[in-house]
């Protein structure tokens, strides 16, 4: 298979740095059982194994840290832009979200209080920093602010932020507690790394185009031991029948085209994504909406809507460069790289 194939001049120089005057044609390589031949093959395998591992992990680091690709779906932006003026109509299309606050606000508050021994009466979340991702018109941002938290609400739809800003102005007590920004999560990752005690993504993950990248960003902006709160829709036949066919096409509870079933995610899938990105799931609870009464209640059944609480691990679980190789491998690879331009060139790729 390899007979007669020429090594490049760069490859020959690399072999020479290992201390062997090897020929440039692999066909000319004699079969060796001597100590020197064995050591050559061992060094050769070790060096390129290291190079492969470096490139593999470097690739994962780039995916983890890159903010050049957005998780925002432009089609979703258009959908919510058309609905922006309806956010604070409690009897309108966002009525289920207004009602959901009866569950999600206590869910967030109570789980955060478990992590804090000291809290102020009447303002239990005082001193905590919360990021509300996909805040819309501020339906969840405002009650969290009233509980004493310092909240930043972000949304990629400019009109949503204008509506949220306007509504906040009716409550002077929220002026210093709430800040709104028209941006995506990826745009603020660098400046807000390890800033927040909690990140809230309520009814958001079913609208992003890359849920794994989204969760990586959530991890990065959380403080160690910080909390992530997610509410979303399970990916089941029942959620398609009730969440899309009935709610959108028959009853008109939500506008047509609001949801895409393919973007729904099961609790098991979500937990797998969270755990693989350094977020340990603490609680998953089902939520059911009664369209006749307009109220939500908790349920053991997660086949439709559900809420999840996860905590960021205290220690970074993504391997650091020093963990990839043994001390001996590192020393030998460094020696080869310092004397051989080919190895250096491989490391740059």
Would you give an account of this structure?
- The radius of gyration is 27 Å and the shape is globular.
- The longest helix is centred in the N-terminal third of the chain and has 31 residues, at 35-65.
- 33% of the residues are buried.
- Strands 3-2-1-4-5-8-6-7 form an eight-stranded mixed sheet.
- It is an alpha/beta fold.
- Residues 1-8, 10-44, 46-67 and 317-327 have low confidence and may be disordered.
- It has 13 helices and eight strands.
- The chain has helices at 9-17, 35-65, 74-83, 95-113, 141-146, 158-168, 185-188, 211-221, 237-250, 267-276, 321-324, 327-339, 341-348; strands at 129-133, 150-155, 178-182, 196-202, 222-233, 279-290, 295-299, 305-312.
What attributes does this structure have?
8 strands, 349 residues, 8-stranded mixed sheet, disordered N terminus, alpha/beta
Note poorly predicted spans.
1-8, 10-44, 46-67, 317-327
- Rg: 27 Å
- Physical arrangement of strands within the biggest beta sheet: 3-2-1-4-5-8-6-7
Beta-strand fraction estimate: 15-25%
Instruction: Bin the helical content.
Output: 40-55%
What is the ordering of alpha helices and beta strands? HHHHEHEHEHEHEHHEEEHHH
Summarize the biggest pleated sheet. Answer: 8 strands, mixed
Structural class: alpha/beta
The total beta strand count reads: 8
State the distance separating the first and last CA atoms: 27 Å
Please give the count of helices. Answer: 13
The outline comes out as: globular
Assembly state of the chains shown: single chain
